[in-house]
Write a structure and sequence with these properties.
With about 230 residues, the chain is α+β, with helices and mostly antiparallel strands. It folds into two domains: about 130 residues; about 80 residues, Arc Repressor Mutant, subunit A. The chain has six helices and eleven strands. Helix 4 crosses helix 5.
């Protein structure tokens, strides 16, 4: 039986992205619209040609988190739930990617050592190339041993932009994000970075609440919904 996934389009400063989530709002895949064939190819590899069907999504928690990230709230993507069907080694490498702090980078060799497989540098590079969820699973934070940008599915210009974006905003200290899934299909949340409250309707009977607080140079700015 085919799994039901939901796709939606989100605008970013470096081009529109397509997000694919499941019924539990777990992010399954993502890519830029001009690279969407790569995303669909990876989906077919992971779930087979007839293993899933795509429907149109409502405004998901993953989309809200990415919008916040591109607004400078880097920690927003840290709590986005994901689910993939890669190999054990790929999932190990992808999990290690999410542990790289925003504003920093690792070489492929350093990442291989971090997962306890120091000789598997090429395999780590291959796992990076097969990552179906760029940005949220931040393969852009891995660079060559000589500090060169090396490859990135979204293109080197986007990789450069993402790294510069993260370095610029990483100075914001004390970021905290709380993500809560609720059974109520209508959940009010505050859309991060915009200072207003938005009521979101989730047709699939699931909602989300995003709470942010970020310590800035001017003091503590609270985004928590009360």
């Amino acid at each position: 039986m085919a799994e039901q996934f939901f796709s939606e389009r989100v605008a970013t400063p470096i081009g529109p992205m397509i997000l694919v989530t499941d019924g539990r709002q777990q992010l399954r895949a993502a890519d830029w619209e001009d690279k969407s064939e790569r995303m669909y190819r990876l989906l077919r590899l992971q779930y087979a040609k007839d293993g899933y069907e795509l429907c149109t999504a409502a405004r998901t928690a993953a989309r809200l988190a990415l919008e916040a990230y591109f607004d400078g709230e880097l920690a927003a993507i840290d709590v986005v739930p994901t689910r993939t069907c890669g190999t054990d080694f790929q999932r190990l490498a992808w999990a290690a990617l999410r542990a790289i702090p925003a504003g920093t980078t690792l070489s492929y060799g350093q990442l291989a050592a971090r997962i306890g497989r120091p000789a598997a540098v090429r395999a780590v590079g291959a796992a990076n190339g097969a990552n179906p969820i760029p940005v949220v699973v931040p393969c852009h934070r891995v660079i060559g041993a000589n500090a060169s940008l090396t490859g990135f599915g979204g293109g080197l210009e986007r990789k450069r932009w993402l790294l510069e974006h993260e370095r610029r905003h990483a100075a914001i200290a004390g970021s905290c994000v709380q993500l809560t899934f609720e059974a109520d299909p209508a959940v009010t949340h505050r859309e991060p970075g915009r200072g207003d409250f938005v009521a979101a309707q989730y047709a699939r009977g699931e909602g989300c609440e995003l709470n942010y607080c970020c310590e800035t140079q001017s003091g503590l700015r609270s985004h928590d919904e009360k």
